[in-house]
TrEMBL record:
Pfam family, one: Prenylcys_lyase
Necessary cofactors: FAD
Organism: Stereocaulon virgatum
InterPro entries referenced in this protein's UniProt entry, alphabetically: FAD/NAD-bd_sf (IPR036188), Prenylcys_lyase (IPR010795), Prenylcysteine_Oxase1 (IPR017046)
TM stretches of this protein: 21-38
Record region (Disordered): 525-545
Keyword terms, alphabetized: FAD, Flavoprotein, Glycoprotein, Membrane, Oxidoreductase, Signal, Transmembrane, Transmembrane helix
Annotated protein name in UniProt: Prenylcysteine lyase domain-containing protein
Domain Prenylcysteine lyase: 169-522
Amino acid sequence: MAPRRNTPTRQIPWYQNLWEHNAVGIAVSICILIWLLYPTKTDAFSHVYAQQQPIIDCGPDGPVKSVAIIGAGSAGASAAYYLNKFKNPCDRVNVTVFERSSYVGGRSITVNVYDDPTEPVELGASIFVEANKNLVSAIRELGLITTSRSSKELPGTLGVWDGLYWKFVSSESRWWTKAKLLWKYGLAPIRTQNTMKQAIGKFLKMYEEPHFPFRDLSQTAYDLGLTEATAATGEEFLVKKGIGSPFSTDIIQASTRVNYAQNLNKIHALESLVCMATDGAMQVQGGNWQIFDGMLKVAGAHVLLNTSVTSIDRRSDGTYAIDALSSNSAVQSTSYDAIILAAPLQYAGLNFQPDLPHPPQEIPYVNLHVTLFTSTSALDPQTFGLNANGKVPTTILTTISDSQHVHPDFFSISTLRTVHNSITGNREYLYKVFSPEPLKSEFFERVLLLSPDGSPITWRYDKLWQSYPYLPPRVTFEDIQLDKEGKVWYTSGIESFISSMETSSLMGMNVARLITDGWADDDSPLEKETLGGDAPQRVQAAEEL
């Protein structure tokens, strides 16, 4: 951002005469007219996807490219969206998206409480933040409405509980909460914010030249200095930065548990810091899945839901054929110039002919149980160590203390809002629980004040997610390009780096740019380096660290 210039001081403001001659209204009207006729993008990152192109007469016979994308989540939708933006103006790109589920959005999906479409609730990825520039840019272009909280959301507090004791309870006042944090933990919160902002600043350079587009995630992470954080656990890294217990275990670990179901001594430090980047948290009204649905529509992609790809075969002409099943019937095979695997390959059940020369490594994913339920009963204060009239925090995060032998059997309990049960006519609480195991009836009996009829649950929805990978320290990440010719691409390798809707979108955008750059190279009469060949030699970052 350019520094501000000092405007010379005048004894008589320049606008005084305008007011006196009633000209301000005319000036404002002209400005509005110019704005309407010549709209400009105010997004600081719009240069990435909205570079101005000269008007070109392409003619009716421009080249046609065909791309298959497997997966309609954040990465797949973003790949389609940015293929459409990055392609040569005269190229025509036919994008087919194969999605084995019945919906678009991947791990971003809503369900309707009581099967009432006026009461949607996020079952998967719930929020994104101001730093998520792809998502924020997309919602602006798509005209989606975001909110920081539901109009029906209950005002309340956040508490961190270790199974026996409250480690920290916030205030309804944001400023008073900050004061409480500083009073209890000293400078640790400030050091954490500074360290987090440094890491996010490095990460955001991945959207910009010369780092974007990147062919080798491992090399780019090293070049940006991010492998210092990925090479250590959150616990180890934070101690080096002067941030230790109890703040790290009380607050940061509560964040890693609710966001990634992992403790601070297991998860790598970069993901630990990402958990603390919460400024401007928001969600799309009606569901975040609308971002990805809108991306696919803008791209003009042909989306095949309830369709599972079974095999991908390389033809003699260098194109690829796909075999798929939809409702137990075969989908006619088509020739594709590029394939984008926009979902973890280990869960895709794909057969490649011939075998991939650079298949991604299979890695363990977290099994996260998400339980939504409604009840007329509030949370029982005495279960959480409060007196009978105590006020239980609206959101309960958990941590563990080494000195305790009792550990919470859940990662979080959130009282989201109140909902109207049209059958009973009651106003009820809507809860969301993250847990490592399915919830049994004993859990509800323990945490809720039982209603007089003894059956506190009026509606329930359970979901098991392979939500994100386990994130131990590492300095190398999966290849983006899986073949030698640059026609088979993979997005899920970024999940071991940072797992989020935004980073998946970033990788989808990155792959789209690499593909379109390859097309441009193919069309150029100049001899250029091809997309094939070996990836850049990786720096032995682990040894240097």
